[in-house]
Specification:
The complex is a heterotetramer of chains A (about 325), B (about 500), C (about 220) and D (about 675).
Chain A (H helix, E strand, L loop, with lengths): L3 H32 L9 H11 L2 E4 L4 H20 L9 H4 L2 H21 L3 H32 L4 H10 L6 H17 L18 H4 L5 H26 L10 H28 L8 H22 L2
Helix pairs in contact in A: 1-3, 1-10, 1-11, 2-10, 3-5, 3-10, 5-6, 6-7, 6-8, 6-12, 8-10, 8-12
Chain B lengths: L2 H20 L5 H26 L2 E3 L4 E3 L1 H30 L5 H23 L3 H19 L5 H36 L8 H7 L5 H19 L7 H8 L2 H29 L4 H21 L5 H22 L1 H33 L10 H4 L1 H14 L6 H16 L3 H24 L5 H5 L11 H15 L3 H14 L1
Antiparallel strand pairs in B: 1-2
Chain C lengths: L1 H25 L3 H26 L2 H28 L12 H25 L7 H18 L3 H23 L4 H29 L14
Helix pairs in contact in C: 1-2, 1-5, 1-6, 2-3, 2-6, 3-7, 4-5, 5-6
Chain lengths: ~325, ~500, ~220, ~675
């Protein structure tokens, strides 16, 4: 079942994701700057930052354990694997046979767990606080994401992302009301998961409000670089999931290389739009108190469940 | 009359007289034990004979042995023997603590033998009249034993025991008269009309109207001695205030014997009536006893009183089983009779030593027995575990059969049994656990004197071992008896 | 002649029994209570003897004599001695007042007759009516035991219950077999002796024979 | 060894009993028990596992023992289901026994020989429960199990709270046992034949079948700790010594599952679909409630105990799904759900025992159970910590662990549910799936709390710096279980192959053939869904190493130690770390209705302000206390029967007599 072309496609997609991820982050930052009419950092700023961090020497806390040093690579690895699963250009991906939507959620959860543990490792006030908040966001966002994926897989009778993409992209166009609910839920979830306003603010170090930043306070040098890279990779993965579920059009079916080549600009376009949309949302909404995050995510969870119910009610 | 049977009855009678004359000498206790042992030997011989050549009647059919009473005879003789062994050191200690006078000891020993005699008489006689006389005599022999300590409480207990059982037994006599009245129509006047074997053959022709009324009187009469609620009031007092060996035999033997009498009449009555009148009544009273006793249990402070109530509960269960009837349920009832008397007497032995060590019967003051005296502590624990119906002890076997039969054939009874057993478990175990485990407490410790005589633990563990054996394995010939007896009861 | 009036005589004696039972319920003084008990015993003796003579059941003479010895002579004598030794001559106060007790008694009699009716119809003996009365006597003595708070009257009630039972035996079935009559008599005698011992012990503990002192053992 | 595997199993059970008895030879000697007997017990466990593994694929064998009641000798039978649970028992107990050999160093209230006796009797009775083939034998083994475990729980019986925990445990266990007993009574239907063979033969009416099922649900649910019968579990499991807690949670709860499956799918045979709904709902409530309560615990063993409730809840949910499918005659799906259920049983057995043993080592090293006074132990006892991390990942259900594999199957089973002929069920199932997902996510939260607070951060107490690594025997036991967690996670296909014979006998279908080779599992077909743990693991591992090397190659590996940064906060100490209570706080507020919260806030002008908050179980106040009070009232009423006045007593029998006379006419 594993074809050579499949492997090639798989590798291209993975490489693409890893390389493009910081670009997406940069693009979102740029859009935000424009919308806030500041003058924007260059598009490639994230790459520069990463490079700088890689060159810096690592400063470890005295009591940092091996887990602390291993975590950045583990997190990065998990997110790469996640990225490899999500079909972006074509749907002929060998890994799709090995890991489906549920496994995808599992990998993301694994990454979250490691980052939270790393945050607790040194035993600083902010690290533990951040870890707790991260897990709080996680235990509400994760099932919501799973429900969103379930809705899609109920529609396409499969939990394999490739099959989902194909069914949604290449069947005759049907309007799925359930997907509308799922879409809203997904947006909320991905805002929370990627440490975006209104749940978190990537651009702040104001202790009492931060979540993601608080966890990684102790990291420096290449470790920090890996974590930052992983973060932008996460944003990329979520965007791609969104695209697969809601705008899969233009994705190449099977392993025809022409389709893949055509799919690339389509993908870039969709990502650009998505990034802009994200920036817009962040612009328009205000950061909410951490205590209101559960309500926000609870709503997302309920919407996702509702999406499934709607599907069962109307679409069979 | 076969020699075994003669010895069986003669030995305790002779023992009673001998000990009455002998008085409180140094070896009185040993003599008492010896007589009981001899009685047991006779019983064993009788059993082997019955196993060899089946049931038989003796002395112009005034006496008879069938599978139903032979195992009760064996049981009674056995428990009487072990209790005598237990009471040897126990009563010595009581004597030296000055709770009993020399005269008291004389009375105790001779009455102990007489009591055994009366019970064996009830079991072996074929004549329902004699049965009544012996039953009344059993009350009379024990009533003074209950009052042995001459304390306020023991006198009160004995008085209630005497009056309530006396009155009850009087009702039983009226019932017996009515049975005779019904029987002489068919069998003609004379003792023949009171022989159970005779009645059993003609039970179909007995007059239903008379028999139903008769059974009512008999139920109220013998039921009082069985301790069925609401006729049970004497039982806890008598058990709690008498000397522990007496509590052991009252609970372990007397109740069984009374129930035995009731069963004999139940067989005839159900034979005479077409509707299951007697069975229904027995089921009802049995359930009532189980439920009410379970509720009483949780309010007890005195350990002997608590186990007295547990005896009421188990008697209720047995009565219910016989009321339910059928080969399995009756089998279970008989098995439960055996298991209960073995276990309960073992418990009373352990309790006796425990109370002597701790110097009190109040459970709240007894703590950490497992430290004070591990053997007694374990005896009490295992006994309690057994009586609560936890496997692999035999009590569980019988309860298993009773409950499973109950839900299948009288589903309405199942929830009552479930709740009652649950409550009684909570009550008994909740009170025994802190007594046995944990650190010894001061009030408990204060009294821990080296007892002048080593406690006799052999009886405790012998009984528990037997109960354990019955739970896992039953010798085929025993099983044979039980089956035949169960068929007899129907 | 007597042959002819025999049954009526027996019924007469039966009604006397019942009358005496009521008398005992209503009686306040212990001495006269004992005398009434003796009288009841005597009536029982008469009726037993009469039945024996009428039916030629010789063993009944035996039980008649037994009754005379035990119930008319021995027991009353023991009781008299007891109360002299314990000097308890006070009046008996009852837990339920006399008239109420009497009313309950009437109800009991009706009940007893109704219960006994089907049985007496079956009785082939010439004394069929007596069974109901005997039952009534038993129940009345029972009632008496319930209503009296002192030990001695309770015991007397107990004994008169035995009378009722004997009467039932005689009336319904011409008496139980002799062995059993003796056995019963023996039990009653021994019981009486034990009671005697009891009275003294209770007395020495509580210097009173009021059973209301005997209410310490109870659930809290 | 012997004629049939069944003989071997019985022989090994006897071997366990014998080992226990040997313990009584030298009651006082610790060395005798720990160095000789427990390792021997471990070997017996391995043997049992091996035999069971082979027996799964063989046809059922049965046997009649010369023990038991006259008309009811002990019947024993070994079929695929029994063999599977015996495999579970043997393999887990092997690890636990080895560990116990290192664990029981000082005696706690009970002599080591006695503990050894209880321990092995407990193991043997569990083995016998699995092979019992008649109601009496089953009940005897069942109650022996309860009794021996009770004595194990109350090993340290000097502590009143441990005594009361044991009391509550045995009480509920006994009531449950009576319910099971009545269930068998209903199944044998008055014919005094108690063999399972006979019960299989009977076709009970719907009413009787339902009665039997409900009784079984109560009885086995009480043992499994299903809400609302769960209250004993968080008391009893922590009270026991850690190896015993491990056995209780890992194996004994599974005997309840075994019993329920045996009775429902085997003896009754024809379940109604709505039984499944009952089991499903109960399971979900337990799962959610269990994990939510685990999140607010501050005692590490209590936390694990509550998480056991959660896992049992998930197992019940899977079982309920099985019943629903089976009730509607969807055999293949029933097989899928049952596979997921059994797989989860196996997984939970391994990771829960692993974690309990880790807490045991922590307890030994620090004499401390409260999460509030632990921390930073990964630096003192790395071996235990890394094993615990594996357990943590597994119990949180994250790939590539075994926990994830079974949860994956369970979720798949849920996903296939739509299309049931019953409208409401189709509504119910998405909600159920959501609840399962939420539970899984929450368990991630809880386990991060557990691992982070115990092993990471700074020591919350100075003396933790002297904590020592676990001994050799303990490390062996831990490693065995941890390895099993990883192994089972990597080869789910093989496990499904193991479960195939069971699902075939119980539901008539199997999904083993759908496991393509050892690499992939695909419940229905590869189009719908497939999962390969090995590949996921390999790819992730590869990517991690590549990243690591790349960084090393393109840049450098320099690192320097310094004080922690923490936003430049000057002087920070261990007490500034987030505590276990802190971790509980968000859950306490999100799931407030679950708890009975009691807060004591200090007054503003308090010299020594103290704030305390307790989150208790509402059910305790809604069900148990009212019942207790009701019984209390009843007993108070009953005592009026016994007021000491003799005339009243006479009146009772008088009235009884008259009433019966009237009744008789």
């Amino acid at each position: 079942m594993i074809s050579l072309s499949g492997l090639a496609a798989q590798f291209t997609e993975l490489a693409l994701a890893v390389l493009l991820a910081p670009l997406l982050t940069g693009w979102v930052n740029q859009c935000r700057a424009w919308l806030q009419n500041r003058n924007a950092p260059p598009l490639l700023q994230p790459y520069r930052t990463l490079n700088k961090l890689f060159q810096k020497e690592v400063v470890l806390a005295h009591n940092a354990s091996p887990l602390f040093r291993a975590a950045p690579y583990l997190i990065f690895g998990c997110l790469c694997a996640a990225a490899a699963i999500v079909p972006t250009l074509g749907t002929d991906l060998p890994l799709n046979a090995a890991a489906d939507a549920i496994a995808l959620v599992g990998l993301l959860a694994l990454a979250r767990m490691f980052i939270a543990l790393a945050g607790m490792d040194v035993g600083t006030a902010f690290g533990t606080l951040g870890a707790r908040r991260e897990m709080l966001v996680g235990f509400l966002a994760e099932p919501a994401l799973l429900m969103v994926l379930f809705t899609a897989s109920l529609i396409s009778n499969s939990t394999s992302l490739a099959t989902i993409a194909e069914t949604l992209a290449h069947k005759e166009f049907v309007i799925y009301p359930s997907l509308a609910f799922a879409g809203v839920a997904f947006t909320m979830v991905s805002l929370a998961e990627n440490a975006r306003i209104p749940v978190d603010n990537p651009a702040t170090h104001l202790e009492l409000t931060m979540i993601h930043e608080a966890m990684v306070l102790e990291y420096s040098g290449r470790h920090l670089a890996m974590i930052e890279w992983a973060a932008s990779l996460k944003l990329f993965v979520y965007s791609c999931i969104g695209l697969v579920l809601f705008f899969p059009f233009g994705i190449a079916e099977g392993g025809d290389w022409l389709g893949i080549v055509l799919a690339l600009p389509a993908l870039l376009g969709k990502l650009a739009l998505g990034g802009a949309l994200l920036a817009l949302i962040e612009m328009l909404s205000a950061k909410m108190r951490i205590f209101r995050a559960p309500e926000f995510l609870g709503t997302a969870f309920l919407l996702a469940v509702l999406a499934m119910l709607v599907h069962v009610l109307l679409e069979r | 009359m076969p020699a075994e049977m003669l010895l069986l009855l003669a030995s305790p009678l002779a023992g009673g007289l001998a000990l009455a004359l002998m008085g409180h000498r140094r070896l009185a206790a040993e003599v008492n034990a010896a007589f009981s042992a001899f009685t047991f030997a006779a019983a064993a011989a009788l059993v082997t004979r019955v196993v060899a050549d089946g049931p038989f009647e003796a002395l112009q059919r005034q006496f008879f042995v069938d599978s139903l009473n032979v195992f009760l005879v064996a049981l009674t003789a056995f428990v009487a023997m072990t209790t005598a062994l237990f009471s040897t050191p126990y009563m010595r200690v009581e004597r030296e603590h000055g709770r009993v006078t020399d005269g008291g000891m004389r009375l105790y020993h001779s009455m102990y033998q007489m009591f055994t005699f009366t019970m064996l008489l009830v079991l072996t006689t074929n004549n329902l009249g004699i049965m009544w006389v012996a039953m009344e005599a059993a009350t009379l022999t024990t009533v003074l034993l209950v009052a042995l300590y001459r304390t306020h409480a023991s006198l009160e207990a004995a008085w209630k025991y005497f009056i309530l059982c006396g009155v009850g037994i009087a009702q039983a006599l009226f019932g017996t008269i009515l049975v005779y009245f019904a029987a002489e129509k068919i069998l003609g006047a004379g003792t023949g009309a009171l022989l159970w074997t005779e009645l059993d053959t003609v039970k179909g022709q007995l007059e239903p109207a008379v028999m139903s009324i008769a059974f009512v009187f008999l139920l109220v009469g013998y039921g009082t001695k069985v301790g069925l609620v609401p006729l049970h009031n004497w039982l806890p007092d008598a058990h709690a205030e008498g000397p522990t060996p007496v509590s052991a035999v009252l609970s372990g033997l007397l109740l069984n014997v009374a129930l035995y009498a009731l069963i004999r009449f139940k067989v005839i009555t159900d034979g005479a009536l077409e509707r299951p009148f007697a069975s229904g009544l027995m089921m009802g009273f049995g359930l009532l006893s189980v439920a009410v006793a379970a509720l009483f249990l949780s309010r007890q402070r005195d350990i002997k009183r608590m186990f007295a109530y547990s005896s009421i509960e188990h008697m209720g269960l047995i009565t219910f089983a016989f009321g339910l009837g059928g080969p399995v349920a009756s089998f279970a009832g008989l098995l439960h009779m055996t298991m209960h008397s073995l276990t309960k007497s073992a418990i009373f032995f352990a309790v006796g030593h425990a109370t002597q060590k701790a110097g009190t019967q109040i459970m709240a003051d007894i703590r950490g027995l497992i430290r004070l005296s591990p053997t007694v502590g374990w005896g009490l624990t295992l006994g309690t575990v057994a009586i609560l119906g936890l496997p692999p002890f035999g009590v569980f076997a019988s309860e298993f059969l009773i409950l499973t039969q109950a839900i299948a054939r009288a589903p309405w009874a199942a929830p009552i049994l479930l709740v009652s057993l649950g409550i009684s478990f909570a009550a008994i175990f909740g009170k025994v656990q802190p007594m046995v485990f944990g650190e010894p407490q001061l009030p408990g410790l204060r009294h821990v004197s080296r007892l002048p005589h080593r406690p006799a633990l052999l009886p405790v563990f012998a009984h528990l071992l037997l109960v354990l054996m019955f739970g896992l394995y039953m010798p085929p010939y025993l099983a044979g008896w039980y089956r035949q007896a169960a068929l007899l009861i129907g | 002649m007597l042959q002819h009036y025999g049954p009526q005589l027996i019924n007469l004696l039966a009604s006397v029994m019942l009358l005496l039972a009521f008398a005992m319920i209503s009686q306040r003084r212990i001495i006269s209570l004992i005398n009434l008990f003796a009288a009841q015993g005597f009536t029982l003796f008469l009726s037993t003897a009469l039945v024996a003579w009428l039916t030629g059941q010789n063993h009944l003479y035996g039980s008649a004599l037994l009754t005379l010895a035990l119930k008319v002579i021995a027991l009353p004598w023991i009781l008299h001695r007891l109360i002299r030794r314990l000097n308890v001559k006070w009046d008996v106060e009852t837990l339920i007042n006399i008239p109420t007790t009497m009313l309950i008694g009437i109800v009991l009699v009706i009940l007893a007759f109704n219960v006994a009716l089907p049985i007496s119809l079956l009785a082939g003996t010439l004394t069929k009516a007596t069974l109901g009365i005997a039952l009534a006597c038993v129940l009345l003595s029972f009632l008496m035991m319930i209503t009296r708070s002192k030990a001695v009257p309770q015991v007397i009630g107990f004994l008169s219950m035995e009378n009722g039972l004997f009467f039932a035996a005689t009336g319904a079935v011409y008496g139980m077999p002799m062995v059993i009559e003796f056995g019963i008599a023996l039990d009653v005698l021994v019981g009486m002796l034990i009671l005697g011992i009891f009275f003294f012990r209770i007395r020495e503990r509580f210097d009173s024979l009021d059973t209301r002192h005997l209410e310490k053992l109870k659930e809290h | 060894m012997f004629a049939t595997p069944l003989h071997d199993v019985l022989a090994l059970a006897c071997a366990w009993l014998a080992i226990g008895a040997l313990g009584m030879l030298r009651t006082g000697s610790i060395g005798w028990a720990t160095r000789v007997l427990y390792p021997a017990g471990a070997i017996v466990g391995l043997g049992l596992a091996a035999i069971a593994l082979l027996a799964i694929f063989e046809p059922a064998v049965s046997l009649v023992l010369p023990l038991g009641l006259p008309d009811l000798p002990f019947h024993a039978r070994l079929d695929a289901l029994s063999a599977f649970f015996l495999l579970l028992l043997g393999s887990v107990s092997a690890g636990v026994s080895v560990y116990a050999g290192g664990y029981f160093r000082q005696t706690q209230g009970t002599s080591p020989g006695l503990i050894c006796l209880y321990f092995h009797v407990f193991l043997a009775s569990m083995a016998l429960v699995m092979v019992a083939d008649d109601a009496y034998f089953f009940m005897v083994a069942w109650e022996t199990m309860a009794l021996s475990s009770f004595f194990l729980v109350t090993c340290d019986h000097d502590k009143p709270e441990i005594r009361s925990a044991g009391y509550l445990y045995l009480l509920i266990a006994h009531i449950g046992a009576i319910a099971i007993l009545l269930c068998f009574g209903a199944l044998q239907a008055g014919t005094g034949d108690y063999t399972f063979e006979h019960m299989r033969g009977l076709q009970p009416s719907a009413a009787w079948a339902t009665a039997a099922f409900l009784l079984a649900l109560v009885g086995f649910g009480a043992k499994a700790g299903i809400v609302p019968l769960h209250v004993w579990l968080p008391e009893a499991h922590p009270a026991a010594p850690s190896p015993v807690s491990a056995l209780l949670s890992a194996v004994m709860l599974k005997t309840a599952i075994y019993g329920l499956i045996r009775v429902t799918l085997d003896l009754i045979g024809s379940p109604l679909w709505w039984w499944g709904v009952v089991a499903l709902v109960l399971g979900l409530v337990s799962a959610l409630g269990g994990i939510v309560f685990a999140a607010v615990q501050t005692d590490m063993k209590r936390l694990l105990a509550y998480s056991s409730i959660e896992n049992v809840g998930l197992i019940f949910a899977g079982f309920g799904l099985t019943l629903i499918f089976h009730g509607f005659g969807m055999g293949a799906l029933a097989a899928l759900a049952l596979t997921a259920t059994l797989f989860h049983c196996l997984n939970h057995a391994f990771y829960k025992s692993l974690l309990f043993l880790c807490t045991g080592s922590v307890l030994h090293a620090t004499r401390e159970r409260s999460l509030g006074r632990l921390g930073g132990l990964i630096r003192r006892m790395p071996w235990v910590a890394w094993c615990a991390l594996i357990g943590t990942i597994a119990i949180a259900g994250l790939p590539p662990s075994n926990g994830f594999a079974s949860e994956w199957l369970l979720l798949q089973a849920f996903l296939f549910t739509p299309g049931l002929p019953q409208g409401y069920l189709n509504m119910l199932v998405p909600v159920a799936a959501a609840a399962v997902a939420l539970t899984a996510a929450l368990s991630g939260y809880v386990m991060v709390k557990f691992f982070g607070v115990v092993f990471l951060g700074q020591h919350r107490e100075a003396r933790l710096a002297e904590a020592h690594e676990a001994g050799l025997w303990e490390r062996v036991g831990l490693t065995w279980l941890a390895a099993a967690c990883i192994f089972l996670g990597l080869v789910p296909a093989t496990v499904i192959g193991l479960l195939d014979p069971i699902t075939r006998t119980l539901t008539g279908h199997g999904i083993g053939h759908l496991a393509q080779g050892w690499l992939f599992i695909a419940p229905i077909n590869a189009e719908r869904a497939s999962y390969s743990a090995v590949l996921v693991f390999a790819v992730t591992a590869l990517l991690v190493t590549v990243a690591w090397f790349a960084v090393r190659v393109f840049y450098h590996g320099r690192a320097r130690r310094a004080a922690s940064w923490d936003c430049g906060f000057p002087d920070q100490d261990a007490r500034m770390q987030d505590t276990a209570e802190g971790f509980g706080q968000p859950v306490r507020h999100v799931f407030e209705p679950f708890f009975r919260l009691e807060q004591h806030a200090p007054a503003p002008d308090d010299a020594h302000p103290r704030f305390s908050e307790s989150a208790e179980d509402r059910l305790w106040y809604w069900i148990y206390l009212p019942v207790a009070r009701a019984v209390e009232r009843l007993t108070a009423l009953v005592t009026l029967l016994q007021r000491g006045r003799i005339s009243v007593y006479l009146a009772y029998s008088f009235v009884t007599l008259l009433a019966l006379l009237l009744f008789a006419r």
